[in-house]
Amino acid sequence: MKNQVSLLLRLLLLFVISAAHAATYDWIDWQTKNVAAGTMAGTITRPDGETIEVDYSGEIAFAQTGVAGETNYWLPDAPYKSTLVSNAPPTADLVAAVGNQGKTQTIRFSRPVKDPVMAFVSLGAPPIPVSCNFSVPFEVISFGRGFWGDGRFERVGFKKLLGY
Known about the structure:
Blueprint: E1 5-13, E2 26-27, E3 29-34, E4 39-45, E5 51-57, E6 60-64, E7 94-99, E8 106-109, E9 116-122, E10 130-133, E11 153-156, E12 160-163
Antiparallel strand pairs: 1-2, 1-7, 1-9, 3-4, 4-5, 5-8, 6-7, 10-12, 11-12
């Protein structure tokens, strides 16, 4: 088994959180991919028509841009909904980043974005743990049985997520 684990991620954008009800999130529509170069580009389109360009750079095992025939790893969608999130990713778009390679994965927005949120389909695989180190503190807002069943993860301190 290669010492390489894919972590599937999808970025969603949090603009407003209401304590009274879950908010609807604006998901990235990944439009172009270059797996060999480790890059993807997409947009977030707000309900008012405003767009935010998004670029990803890092290692990519595979990528999906929501075209017909791609597997929708976001089903079942229950793990991606919570008291804060009313909608799961609507399409099969995702970046399958490679872990344990020592490279930095970077997501860049065309303008400042407050409180971005990431959704993971999978993080690590027994017996190979994978960690995500963030530059700012984060919160886990939902989890559950997803496409590959149950997995195990733990938050280490305020800036590290470890999956098995």
